[in-house]
Amino acid sequence: MTTVAAPAHGPLAINGGTPVSRTPVPFMLPGLQEADIEAVNKVLRSGMLRAASKCAELETRMAELSHARHAMTCANGTCALQLAYEPLFERGDDILVPCWSYIATASMLVARGCRPIFVDADETTGQIDVADAARRITPRTRGIAATHMYGCPVDIDGVQALARSHNLKVVYDAAQAHLALYKGKGIGQFGDAVTYSFYATKNLATGEGGMVTCNDDALATKIKLLRSHGETDKYLHESVGYNYRMNDMAGAIGCSRLDRLQRETDARRAAARRYDAMLAGIRGLAPLAATAGAVSAYHLYTVKLDLATVRCTRDEFIKALGAEGVPTAVHYPRSLNNQPAFKAFLAGQKPWPVAEKLATQVFSLPMHHGLTDEHFATVEQALRKVTAAMGR
């Protein structure tokens, strides 16, 4: 990286200057509170460690909050995808899936025996491009797996209309979108199934854990059977299944953290509004836009760097930010078509220029419910310092 200085701010810390803050802004706040620890202790004292009353409580409350009829806890978000895909899709099916997403959204389709048909991203929102999805439909297409990226719902109306017109099943990957809304409704109302992750860094985190929601009684029964060895009675197995159950310790953490999730989500949304206003005055940086009608849960606050406005790469830019006291993360450094795991499925598929461009541009700023005025001041000063130094 070329050594440059920003006259208005002094030399960059990465070049030997004084950092904006010697104490880094926390990127996230995944830690437990005393209430969470006590909730687990109650389970431990009860001796009932397997999936029991706390998992059931979490299911009831999440179904209500997401406006879904059924909710089924499971071991993790990847298992949730597998539990949703298996009863809805058949081996050999072509399934439309975003090229811009975490790998599990697509890899569990491969595990099901399906062929992932990668769809490009919308350049404004980073969500699945519904128009591009329509262009990739063939007689073999049987479904759509769409991710609510960064906590913001996709164009659900567009996805549902496309699915209806081609008789496609829809699974929404909401691993990052707890309490997100679409046109005033919980995202559990939409699609054939919705999957969640409760991984340690998620807005609702239990360490490991996941959930599937749906609104069809028969599908819910299939998922429950699939989750627990196809067992309908003790040692009576009507079908082949898995052991994908959550445990009540994780369920207890989930219930405890759910007590404050709405407040924390509101704080994230307020933080996003502050970032929006901040970035409006900084050349070359812009947040990914929210889908029309959507209210994001802001698991991440993701920014695009206009590479035409700077004399560095995205990775050089965020390295300089880190030296100033502002940690960042890249979600994601490559689009799924560039993952070696999917090389065998790419023959005959069209290019994905938007997703590949996003992989060179995006980065995420610190986002959590504990951001302070001092944190925002540090982030803004660091962004202005680095953009001034790196600007064309």
Describe this structure in words.
The chain is an alpha/beta fold and 392 residues long. It folds into 2 domains: 223 residues, Type I PLP-dependent aspartate aminotransferase-like (Major domain) (Aspartate Aminotransferase, domain 2); 130 residues, Aspartate Aminotransferase, domain 1, CATH 3.90.1150.10. The protein is built from 11 helices and 17 strands. It has a 7-stranded mixed β-sheet with strand order 3-11-10-7-6-4-5, with helices on both faces. Helix 1 runs antiparallel to helix 8 and helix 3 packs across helix 7. The protein is globular, with a radius of gyration of 22 Å. The N terminus is likely disordered.
Can you lay out the helices and strands and say which pair or pack?
Elements: E1 5-6, E2 10-11, H1 34-46, H2 53-66, E3 70-74, H3 77-88, E4 94-98, H4 103-112, E5 115-119, H5 130-135, E6 141-147, H6 156-166, E7 169-173, E8 181-182, E9 185-186, E10 193-197, E11 210-214, H7 217-227, E12 231-233, E13 236-237, H8 248-279, E14 285-287, E15 294-295, E16 301-305, H9 314-324, H10 353-361, E17 362-365, H11 373-390
Parallel strand pairs: 4-5, 4-6, 6-7, 7-10
Antiparallel strand pairs: 1-2, 3-11, 8-9, 8-15, 10-11, 12-13, 14-16, 16-17
